[in-house]
Write a structure and sequence with these properties.
Blueprint lengths: L13 E8 L8 H12 L5 E6 L2 E4 L3 H6 L7 E8 L2 H13 L6
GO cellular component, one term: cytoplasm
Main location: cytoplasm
Subcellular location: Cytoplasm
Length: 103
């Protein structure tokens, strides 16, 4: 698994992972889950899984993400596979950094 966040060559399927910390006060409820899914679905060629406490769910499923019960401070491991996996994880990192536009 390539965890460096750098694709070996453009156009090749890569597998990358990134740990993101939930920074918004209310955690991953319906709205943040929908935002994650909306970003993820723009990358139809990338498979995305999310892990928390040894539970793994499809990162393109609102219900799956909500079932993780990821509150403030939770660490989620995102595993992406596909040619644009790095781009997807960068967008998700930005989304988490912006605290899902919540104050």
């Amino acid at each position: 698994m390539n965890t460096s966040g750098i694709a070996p060559e453009s156009g090749m399927d890569v597998e990358v992972s990134k740990i993101l910390t939930v920074q918004n006060k209310m955690g991953i409820h319906a709205r943040p889950a929908a935002m994650i899914v909306r970003v993820s679905n723009r990358y139809s060629d990338v498979e995305l899984w999310v892990e928390k406490d040894e539970e793994q769910v499809n990162g393109k499923s609102i219900m799956g993400l909500m079932m993780l019960a990821a509150g403030h401070g939770s660490e989620l491991k995102f595993l992406a596979t596909g040619a644009k996996a790095n781009d997807l994880l960068k967008e998700l990192d930005d989304l988490f950094s912006r605290k899902f536009e919540e104050t």
